[in-house]
Amino acid sequence: MTTEAPLLRLENISKSFGAIQALRDISFEIGRGEVVALLGDNGAGKSTLVKIISGGLEPSSGKVVYDGAERHFTSPADGKAAGIETVYQDLSLCTNVDVVANFFMGREIVKKVFGVPVLQEKEMEAVVAKAMAAAGTKIPSLRTNVEHLSGGQRQAIELNRFVHWGGKLVLLDEPFAALGVEQTRRGLELIRRIADQGIGVVFITHIMSQAFQVADRMVVIRQGKVAGDVRREETSPDEIVHLITGEALGGRARTVGQENGQAQHAG
Ligand SMILES: Nc1ncnc2c1ncn2[C@@H]1O[C@H](COP(=O)(O)OP(=O)(O)OP(=O)(O)O)[C@@H](O)[C@H]1O
Ligand SMILES: [Mg+2]
């Protein structure tokens, strides 16, 4: 028996959409405090896999073992309740209220004054200020409506909120696609800081340099299968490209389709 189980273990996950088999027999682990970059070509199955982890999709077969127990999430709310969340760039914040309101959405501190519930604005603002400071996130004013903040600032608010409310595993599906260089740099730093607090991070990106900058491990998905699972310090961008495309390092093409064809017949 191992002393500490990984945060998440996927065992032989497969997923079909009708005749399309998007994922075949996927197995890998994510440790606490580990950043795993999920790489692969368009249509490889990355988003499908992340949705299975979050509860957005149910696998056709295979096992999701999270925090020591097998889980059968049937909705993102199930995943969220267990501390797993997908953080999008800005989709899940309410733009017409301020940072503090977003941070406390549904968890507001309310005290009864002469029997009337009163929002404890000062107290809530102090909590948010502390969380932002701990993460090194600078927002000009926590009383700014989110609509006036940049994509990167919104993302930072979401991530800090996730950490503050006890999140354990965060899933980022191309989080920096719409961000500039400086905001992306800050986002990558924030990912590292979050992982350093013991949170697991799955980070989908098409940009190799981002993966090498922040990931502890890289899992490459090719045509729905794990083509490689490598530690960052033991791989190179060349090897990752090779794993993504299936082409040999020397340039000689290997036909992945044939391999998969055989696997399909066998199954
Ligand atoms: N709801 C769905 N119904 C049918 N097919 C789907 C569905 N979702 C995904 N697929 C198919 O599953 C495969 C994997 O798609 P997925 O979105 O996971 O790829 P991806 O690796 O995230 O690609 P990208 O890098 O382009 O975002 C594709 O062939 C896609 O068309
Ligand atoms: Mg995708």
From TrEMBL:
Gene3D superfamilies: P-loop containing nucleotide triphosphate hydrolases
UniProt keyword Nuclease present: no
Domain ABC transporter: 8-248
Database matches in InterPro entries: AAA+_ATPase, ABC_carbohydrate_import_ATPase, ABC_transporter-like_ATP-bd, P-loop_NTPase
CDD domains in UniProt: ABC_Carb_Monos_I (cd03216)
PROSITE patterns for this protein: ABC_TRANSPORTER_2 (PS50893)
SMART domains: AAA
SUPFAM superfamilies per record: P-loop containing nucleoside triphosphate hydrolases
Domain of life per record: Bacteria
Keywords: ATP-binding, Nucleotide-binding
MF terms in GO: ATP binding; ATP hydrolysis activity
Pfam families to which the protein is assigned, alphabetical: ABC_tran
PANTHER family named among the record's database cross-references: CARBOHYDRATE TRANSPORT ATP-BINDING PROTEIN MG119-RELATED, SUGAR ABC TRANSPORTER ATP-BINDING PROTEIN
Protein name, as recorded: ATP-binding cassette domain-containing protein
